[in-house]
Write a structure and sequence with these properties.
Blueprint: E1 6-8, H1 14-24, E2 29-31, E3 35-39, E4 53-56, H2 59-68, E5 75-78, H3 81-89, E6 93-96, H4 101-111, E7 117-123, H5 131-136, E8 140-151, H6 156-162, E9 169-172, H7 175-184, E10 195-198
Parallel strand pairs: 1-2, 1-9, 4-5, 4-7, 5-6, 7-8, 9-10
Antiparallel strand pairs: 3-8
Helix pairs in contact: 2-3
Length: 215
């Protein structure tokens, strides 16, 4: 039984799901999101009837599009299993990459028909863009920035836990979130027994120099 807490830095709406699962396992959780997501309602989305397919590199992109367009007839080309799970839950047929934009691009170059317009619905910051290389390969492709992320400080409870050496783990759900955690590092943090749990290699990399017990 793990009694020391786990800090969840994930933004809503996914944070509540993660926290509920961890608490369902009997774990103590501190919620301290480092980003707050906001839909950009000023950005128009194209009707599904005008598209050949949807491109998603985050579950948040799926949520925003699905909330504004009820048609579920298009295939969703998803960067990895987590994004594909969200798209499937929303009713889309999915094609899934192995977790990187490069892998998704290669999958689309091999499998996607070049018969219409594809739009990548994304946040304001991405590590790799999909639309430009698709265009270079002869696809009609565009992108829409449908949400943005604003920075949040670690909560006082999270800061206290990081300084107490009584913290089991801290989570990282994105490269940007990891970068913010690295910037927030304080000399008061005592991490000899703290594990970093990252959703991907990219979400761990900015924290390589932070002395967690293990990553």
């Amino acid at each position: 039984m793990i009694e020391t807490p786990i800090i969840v830095t994930r933004a809503e709406p996914g944070a509540s799901e993660t926290i509920a699962r961890l608490r369902g396992m009997g774990l103590t959780v501190i919620s301290s999101p480092v980003l707050s997501l906001h839909e950009r309602v000023d950005v128009p989305i194209a009707p599904a009837s005008t598209l050949a397919g949807l491109v998603f590199t985050s579950a948040n992109g799926v949520r925003v599009f699905a909330a504004r367009e009820q048609d579920r007839s298009l295939t969703a080309w998803c960067v990895g299993p987590g994004t594909a799970q969200e798209a499937s839950a929303k009713g889309y047929e999915t094609r899934t990459g192995s977790g990187t934009a490069t892998d998704l691009l290669n999958l689309m170059l091999e499998k996607a028909p070049q018969t219409g317009l594809y739009i990548h619905f994304r946040g304001e910051e991405v590590r790799e863009r999909i639309a430009p290389p698709l265009q270079d390969a002869g696809f009609r492709a565009e992108e829409r920035i449908v949400y943005e992320a604003k920075e949040l400080p670690l909560s006082a409870e999270a800061q206290e836990a990081l300084a107490s050496n009584a913290l089991h783990a801290i989570t990282s759900f994105s490269p940007r979130g990891a970068t913010l955690l690295a910037k927030a590092q304080s000399p008061s943090w005592t991490l000899e027994s703290t594990t970093l749990v990252a959703i991907s290699t990219a979400a761990a990399k900015p924290l390589e120099q932070v002395p967690f017990a293990k990553i």
